[in-house]
């Protein structure tokens, strides 16, 4: 029997979750992706518990608190696995910013193209945190806004240090919004599939009923001929 403590990886947890949902009579292909998106969110454990409980109650009735707790316990034990606790490498904004400044300081007056290193660093920062408005309200926060590239071909510093918290907060809000939209989309797809399954069952039931009626009429005709 697969137990929560055996969930040594995300793949193991996904398999366990599919089995658990099947055991309570729920289509795992509908709910499993949605529940996982909830668990991967940044919300507090209590909020995740309520969200999972609500979706389970919606699909299979109430009284699923024990199942919800078991799902959360299994997920928590999976994350505690040392192999799962390694953080993904994140872009160090300040470090990259300092590297750009050092790179700029090394530039000579001689015209030259932006080095591949400088271009890659700049693109990495912009890709991670997004671009800020070209016209900031406070000019003191702008180190050099005249051009991205100086007359020497070196990358210019577009943002002052005071922009770092603002950009980080904006990025965090975008991530949170994307996660929420992902969960809502998964829920809508789950509900849609549930309704489609219901329609398909009704059609199948009707086909079977029509077949029985035809068979009944055929039998009655045969009896009258006798």
Short précis:
The protein has helices at 10-23, 28-39, 45-60, 65-79, 93-105, 116-129, 163-225. It is mostly helical.
Rg of Cα set = 29 Å
Q: Please outline the major beta sheet.
A: none
What structural class do helix, strand and pairing data support?
Answer: mainly alpha
Distance between the termini: 60 Å
What is the percentage of strand-forming residues?
A: under 5%
Q: What general form does the structure show? A: elongated
Structure summary, number of beta strands: 0
- Uncertain runs are 1-7, 84-91, 139-162
Mean pLDDT: 69
Describe the overall structure:
With 226 residues, this protein is an all-alpha fold. Among the domains are: 75 residues; 53 residues. It is 65% helix and 0% strand. It contains seven helices and no strands. The longest helix is centred in the last third of the chain and has 63 residues. The N and C termini lie far apart (60 Å). Belongs to the CCDC43 family. This is Coiled-coil domain-containing protein 43. InterPro entries: CCDC43 (IPR037666), PWI_CCDC43 (IPR058771). Keywords: Coiled coil.
């Amino acid at each position: 029997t697969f137990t929560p403590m055996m969930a040594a990886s995300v793949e193991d947890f996904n398999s366990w979750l599919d089995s658990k949902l099947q055991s309570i009579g729920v289509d795992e292909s509908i709910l499993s992706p949605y529940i996982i998106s909830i668990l991967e969110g940044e919300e507090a454990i209590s909020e995740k518990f309520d969200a999972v409980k609500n979706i389970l109650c919606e699909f299979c009735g109430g009284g699923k608190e024990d199942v919800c707790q078991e799902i959360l316990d299994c997920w928590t034990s999976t994350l505690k696995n040392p192999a799962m606790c390694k953080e993904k490498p994140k872009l160090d904004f300040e470090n990259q910013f300092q590297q750009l400044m050092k790179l700029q300081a090394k530039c000579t007056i001689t015209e030259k193209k932006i080095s591949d290193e400088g271009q890659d660093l700049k693109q990495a920062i912009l890709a991670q945190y997004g671009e800020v408005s070209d016209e900031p309200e406070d000019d003191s926060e702008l180190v050099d806004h005249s051009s991205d590239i100086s007359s020497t071909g070196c990358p210019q510093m577009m943002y002052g240090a005071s922009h770092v918290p603002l950009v980080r907060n904006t990025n965090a809000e975008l991530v949170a919004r994307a996660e929420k939209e992902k969960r809502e989309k998964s829920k809508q797809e789950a509900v849609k599939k549930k309704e489609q399954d219901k329609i398909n069952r009704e059609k199948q039931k009707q086909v079977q009923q029509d077949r029985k009626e035809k068979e009944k009429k055929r039998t009655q005709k045969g009896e009258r001929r006798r």
